[in-house]
């Protein structure tokens, strides 16, 4: 067992992990931050996306020991300070960007990473950025629309298909 | 996953020492190795994570040569832009989250027969720098998942001479997004080099007939009539050997037309 210390959603956290402990397992099983979902465990679906030192990563494909000393952001830290939904989360709600909700934590975290680097993306840039996030309910259309709306762009021209 | 230990050295010297243990395996960004461990296709007793090694980070350019640390991620290469064809290639590996972890050192050391970077390294005439020596790309990529690396040897950097013109064209395998066939073309004062990935059971390789034709006349037209033998090309449910042979010629033409 190795001791790891990291800052998660602004709080210093430490724990004992095995070599094989994935960051996703550490978050979910040790810290009970179960908002980070494990959809496939094969780094394809993106439900486990979190930010490590500001970069979107698949937490099922990174060991907890490798996040030692890192700053981690998960879906639990995304709401505004008063507990209300942040702009991306609110846009997902407003534009029906989720149905069963399983992929949503990863979608929101990927969207946040995209908008940090590219505050006004085009529709095709949004779709390209979500290449590693799979949704089996929505057909993606409303997810894309929600992210466009969260970026402050007019989405009235994005017709429902 | 089965139980193993993990170490995260901070210096190259510590990493080399840790890898002298024959049961230890280097871990780059882990985007190939971690899924491999989950499937138990590999089962080392100890992983030596290279993500904390400061000497393997950073990109620098000097005298027309771009040096990329072995620990540099695909995302960092994608946003660098000083060798445009290489940055474009990096920006199409995997997905954004994979690109934030996967490293160039890990990719060339793994030498997946469908990986993108080996084609760039071979076509550019890159030099693979390790903790022990420098290896020309022509000598480095030995075969499918095989390289000239010795046990415990670490890719610390890859040096790319920046060509006059270059381009990479990838025909994406729709499920994995790896290259079903990828072709990197690089034109320098010394001639043209063409490297093909995804197609061959021998892994990345050069297409010498196309290189000769393009060195005389760098145009897609110069490739008219040239074809690749389907012998020893990969055949699977995504495409036959003949289909891949055809794609090699098509992607080479597209790369020449797009080269800048």
TrEMBL record, chain A:
Keywords: 2Fe-2S, Iron, Iron-sulfur, Metal-binding, Oxidoreductase. Residues 2-78 form the 2Fe-2S ferredoxin-type domain. It comes from the Bacteria. The keyword Isomerase does not apply. GO terms for molecular function: 2 iron, 2 sulfur cluster binding; metal ion binding; oxidoreductase activity. PANTHER family: OXIDOREDUCTASE WITH IRON-SULFUR SUBUNIT (PTHR44379). This is Carbon-monoxide dehydrogenase small subunit. It comes from Litoreibacter albidus.
TrEMBL record, chain B:
Residues 1-165 form the FAD-binding PCMH-type domain. One of its GO terms (molecular function) is FAD binding. InterPro entries: CO_DH_flav_C, CO_DH_flav_C_dom_sf, Diverse_Substr_Oxidored, FAD-bd_PCMH, FAD-bd_PCMH-like_sf, FAD-bd_PCMH_sub1, FAD-bd_PCMH_sub2, Mopterin_DH_FAD-bd. Gene3D superfamilies: 3.30.465.10, CO dehydrogenase flavoprotein, C-terminal domain, Uridine Diphospho-n-acetylenolpyruvylglucosamine Reductase, domain 2. PROSITE patterns: FAD_PCMH (PS51387). Keywords: FAD, Flavoprotein, Oxidoreductase. This is Carbon-monoxide dehydrogenase medium subunit. It comes from Litoreibacter albidus.
């Amino acid at each position: 067992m190795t001791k790891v210390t990291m800052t998660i959603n602004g709080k210093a956290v430490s724990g004992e992990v095995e070599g094989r402990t994935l960051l996703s397992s550490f978050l979910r099983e040790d810290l009970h931050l179960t908002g980070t979902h494990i959809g496939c465990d094969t780094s394809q679906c993106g439900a486990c996306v979190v930010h490590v030192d500001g970069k979107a990563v698949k937490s099922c494909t990174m060991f907890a020991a490798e996040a030692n000393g890192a700053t981690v952001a998960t879906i639990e830290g995304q709401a505004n300070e008063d507990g209300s939904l942040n702009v991306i989360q609110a846009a997902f709600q407003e534009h029906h960007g989720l149905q069963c909700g399983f992929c949503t934590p990863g979608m929101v975290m990927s969207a946040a990473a995209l908008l940090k680097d590219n505050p006004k993306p085009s529709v095709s840039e949004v779709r390209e950025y979500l290449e590693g996030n799979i949704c089996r309910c929505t057909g993606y259309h409303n997810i894309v629309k929600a992210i466009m709306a969260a970026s402050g762009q007019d989405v009235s021209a994005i017709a429902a298909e | 996953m089965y139980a193993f230990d993990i170490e995260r050295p901070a210096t190259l010297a510590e990493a080399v020492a840790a890898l002298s243990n024959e049961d230890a395996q280097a871990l780059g960004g882990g985007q190939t190795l971690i899924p491999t461990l989950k499937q138990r296709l590999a089962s080392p007793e100890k992983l030596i994570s290279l993500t904390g090694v400061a000497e393997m980070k950073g990109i620098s350019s000097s005298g027309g040569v771009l040096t990329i640390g072995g620990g540099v991620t695909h995302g960092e290469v994608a946003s660098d832009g000083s060798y445009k064809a290489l940055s474009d290639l990096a920006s199409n590996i995997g997905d954004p989250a994979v690109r934030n972890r996967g490293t160039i050192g890990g990719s060339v050391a793994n030498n997946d027969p469908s990986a993108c970077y080996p084609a760039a390294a071979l076509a550019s005439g890159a030099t693979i720098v390790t903790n022990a020596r420098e290896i020309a790309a022509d000598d480095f990529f030995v075969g499918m998942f095989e390289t000239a690396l010795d046990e415990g040897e670490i890719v610390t950097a890859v040096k790319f001479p920046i060509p006059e013109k270059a381009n990479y064209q990838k025909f994406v395998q729709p499920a994995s997004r790896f290259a079903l066939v990828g072709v990197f073309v690089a034109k320098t004062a010394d001639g043209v080099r063409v490297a093909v990935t995804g197609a061959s059971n021998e892994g990345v390789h050069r297409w010498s007939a196309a290189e000769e034709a393009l060195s005389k006349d760098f145009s897609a037209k110069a490739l008219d009539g040239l074809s690749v033998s389907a012998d020893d090309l990969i055949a699977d449910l995504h495409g036959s050997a003949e289909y891949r042979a055809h794609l090699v010629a098509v992607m080479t033409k597209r790369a020449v037309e797009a080269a800048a």
